[in-house]
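Cont'd.
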Amino acid sequence: MVGGGVIQQILRRKLHSPSLATPVRSWLSSKTAHVDAGSSGVRAFALLGAGVTGLLSFSTVASADEAEHGLACPDYPWPHDGILSSYDHASIRRGHQVYQQVCASCHSMSLISYRDLVGVAYTEEEAKAMAAEIEVVDGPNDEGEMFTRPGKLSDRLPQPYANESAARFANGGAYPPDLSLITKARHNGQNYVFALLTGYRDPPAGISIREGLHYNPYFPGGAIAMPKMLNDEAVEYEDGVPATEAQMGKDVVSFLSWAAEPEMEERKLMGFKWIFLLSLALLQAAYYRRLKWSVLKSRKLVLDVVN
Amino acid sequence: MRFGEIELQHLGFIHHLAISQRRLRSFLSNFTMADVEVVDPKKCLEESCKPKCVKPLLEYQACVKRVQGDESGHKHCTGQYFDYWQCVDKCVGPKLFAELK
């Protein structure tokens, strides 16, 4: 704001100086048919004023963009980040527990089946027992009726709401997104989700959030419908790890990262193997090409100038 | 072998350390899971990173003072707030996971 006013002052001074006034006047007289000697200077000033106002309004829009994009999240050193690093499977197991007890009441994960958890976070018996706790609608049977049965490994994780409308109705119009791919569906997903879950803070001075929403600086716009869900010791971990907010955040994001990219470990192994083999092949191919071309590249041309 | 005075002092120190270690273990075992207060490492680190980010914090506090008198409801301190928290996040980020399992 202050900068804009200073710019305006400088422009006014420059305009009133004799060096700038005459070329402006001559430019205006060449453009328009009727040029009044007095009004041409005013017209130029008006044009410059319009330009400066445009600049000022742009700067106020730019400052509103900060909250619109949300606070940039920091990069955390995830244990599965390196080119040959695997997931922390103990963390995935704890993260699934957090999801089940804290998040599953509102968020579905409809692309994950119980059998996907076998060998990753649970043994087959444990996964079977977990699946058996839920009721699944199946059918039709021989009489043509739908029936409910206990879950099997092949069933998907249960959905909290029947459809999106029911989900919106239960959450004040906001839809809790499906979390199966959330770390891939958001820019810098893993860091973003962790920062969001652990980043609930008091809003800055001058910002008020309406009833029903909560302030989160990382959420684009700042006002998120989800309240702070991770509170210290909300969950009691089976392995006795202290369930602080940051610990639960790390574990649940490890679980969500696995859910979005279950192939990651195999991909990294394959990538490392094939990049190594292909670089050997590249060296071999380069040698072979140069071997074959050496015949031509070592030609000697003799210029015979006689006659 | 005769023990000199220095060796005796060393032995005494080690003996003392062993006793204090035993006392510490019995002291800690008196705490059950319910007694120990879990401290969130992220909050703890954010507090410890505050001294590194004094400049943006002071800018924010200056802005708060300016905004307090505002009647229009358009003024806010999001910019300074973001600058401060970005500084704290940059400080906390690399250190946090070392504190977690």
